[in-house]
Amino acid sequence: MEDFAEYLMGSGIICNDELTWLVFHGSFDFGYMLKILTGLQLPKSSEDFFKSLKLYCPNIYDIKYITLDVEYCELVEEDRTVDNCYSNVAELTKDKSICKDVSEIRRDYCYMPFMMDGDYEVCAELKNKYLKQSCDTLSKVKKS
Fold first, then answer.
1. Contact status, residue 29 vs residue 62, Cβ threshold 8 Å
2. pLDDT of 11-36, one tens digit each?
3. Dihedral of CA 85/31/19/54: which sign?
4. Which of 45, 48, 110, 138 makes an SS bond possible with 102, Cβ 3.0 to 4.6 Å?
């Protein structure tokens, strides 16, 4: 097991904040991997487990829970909460197409994280003229 842990650590896939782990219901798999990497028993609480896991795999998205979040958004009745839910899921999954489900009055704010990450295609989707102008200006500045 120690050889495998050493290989994993040296492979570049562990502790790599440029790598995103996309899994479906992967907690058990990551539990086994964390136990192999540390050589220790798993943390007792889920909070401590995920805190430890984040050290080794900083970017993990579990599709099972993301899917549940989108389904949850559809069950929420208050408009503002639904919009916040969709915006959070869009940002978490880095899927700007989810922003189309946000009400028009709040949709621009759903697109903002994408703009701040350099995805200036969203500039065309913005309705607020000041936000659109800022987005277009950022786009031009980054190109030059």
1. no
2. 999 999 888 887 777 788 888 999 99
3. positive
4. 110
Q: How far is the C-alpha of 19 from the C-alpha of 30, rounded, in Å?
A: 15
123 closest CA partner among 83, 73, 92, 141:
141
Domain definitions of the chain by residue range: 2-58, 63-143
> Alpha-carbon distance 64 to 40, whole Å?
27
> How many C-beta atoms lie closer than 10 Å to residue 37's C-beta?
22
Give the Cα separation of 52 and 38 in Å (integer): 10
Query: Looking at this protein, which amino acid is placed at residue 77?
Result: E
For the segment 97-119, what is each residue's pLDDT rounded down to a tens digit? 989 988 888 899 899 989 988 99
Which are the contacts of 16, defined by CB distance < 8 A and separation ≥ 6?
58
Residue 73 vs residues 18, 104, 110, 125: alpha-carbon distances, Å: 29, 16, 14, 22
Give the type of residue at 34.
L
Long-range own/partner contacts, residues 94-103 (CB < 8 A, 24 or more apart) = 96/121, 96/122, 96/125, 98/70, 99/125, 101/73, 103/79
